[in-house]
Amino acid sequence: MHIMAKASNIINRKSSISYRTKRKINGWIFLMPWIIGFVLFFVIPLINNIIYSFHIVSVGEAGGMEMEFNGIQNYLDLFNVQVSSNGQQFARVFVDENINILINTPVIVVFSLFAAILINNRFKGRSVARVIFFLPIVIGLKIIMDLFMVSSGGDVTDAVVDQTFNTGAILDFLLQYSFLPIEVSKFISSVANNVFSLMLQAGVQTLVLLAGLQSINTTLYEVADIEGATKYEIFWKITLPLLYNVSIFALVYTFVDLFLNSSISIEIYNFAFRKNNIGIGSALSVAYLINVLIDLVLILFIYKKVVSLSYGKL
Question: Could you tell me the pTM of the whole model?
């Protein structure tokens, strides 16, 4: 009888849990594998990396790892003594990477948004256009270029594989007819020059933004059209505000992608595993991580201000 009474109390306690609490418990159960993986494969290595950056790390005579504390000397040597594989000071390398991130991130996201809007429109052959656009993203741009070379051959494919165009005509046209500053014209021509690389980098962001566009209720556009709103006003009043969260994800993803494919990531690997200088490599990775986080906060702040100001002025 005593055992049955305990079982009854447990059942009553379980039944007393509210639906909201049950959902919270289910949510934590769903997130638990990710939390465990995040702690084991990110938090712990990050802490160890920070610890290594303040030590001289070497292999002991009897094996294993030996660490000698040297404070911030690794960071001082990184920017005063050490140079990159190209012989550049790391202060200069950081400046170049910051310029690369701050320029390429908006270009990739804007191109992704433009491609998503274009593909989302209704026109004849839309399915074929989607396949052509996303095929290099799915199986890789290099493979598509190799297939094109095998099927056609010739000098044209060499230009395609090199991912370059003869943009002299584009630059001359911009300088003659657009009245843009020469630096802006050179920037636009350089973007056109690397259009294949841009398509490859913008693939995932385009898919995400396309999903965001398709989730917007079409009745909002119908009401705006009835009220006489222009396409420009519809974009800034409806499309961009409703894509704000999705575009934030696209910005963060672009940052991570540029971070992983940067020249500094290669230098971190060279110091840690090829030069066996784990202390300097760890200091470089910590410094670059802090730099990227600052850039990310800056771009998110600027993007939020641009969206709010543009939305408020219309």
Answer: 0.68
Residue 163 has pLDDT above 80, yes or no: no
pLDDT digits (tens, 9 = 90+) for 197-218: 666 677 788 888 888 888 888 8
**Higher per-residue pLDDT: 287 or 134:** 287
For residue 123, give its domain range.
Answer: 86-313
**Taking a C-beta distance cutoff of 8 angstroms, is the pair 204, 255 a contact?**
no
pLDDT at 106 over 50: yes
**pLDDT at position 152:** 46
**How many independent structural domains does the chain possess?**
1
254 in any annotated domain:
yes
User: Could you tell me if residue 25 is left (phi over 0), alpha (psi between -120 and 50 degrees) or otherwise beta?
Assistant: alpha
Q: In sequence order, which residues have a C-beta less than 8 Å from that of residue 282 and are 6 or more positions away?
A: 49, 50, 52, 53, 57, 74, 272
Give the span between the Cα atoms of 165 and 171, in whole angstroms. 12
Q: In this structure, what are the phi and psi dihedrals at residue 136, rounded to the nearest 5 degrees? A: -65, -30
CATH code of the domain in which 201 resides: 1.10.3720.10
| Residue-wise DSSP of the chain | -HHHHHHHHHHHHHHTS-HHHHHHHHHHHHHHHHHHHHIIIIIHHHHHHHHHTTEEEEE-TTSSEEEEE-TTHHHHHHHHT-B-TTS-BHHHHHHHHHHHHHHHHHHHHHHHHHHHHHHHS--TTHHHHHHHHHHHHHH-HHHHHHHHHHHT-SHHHHHHHTT---THHHHHHIIIII---HHHHHHHHHHHHTHHHHHHHTHHHHHHHHHHHHTS-HHHHHHHHHTT--HHHHIIIIIHHHTHHHHHHHHHHHHHHHHHTSHHHHHHHIIIIIS--HHHHHHHHHHHHHHHHHHHHHHHHHHHHHHHHHHHH-
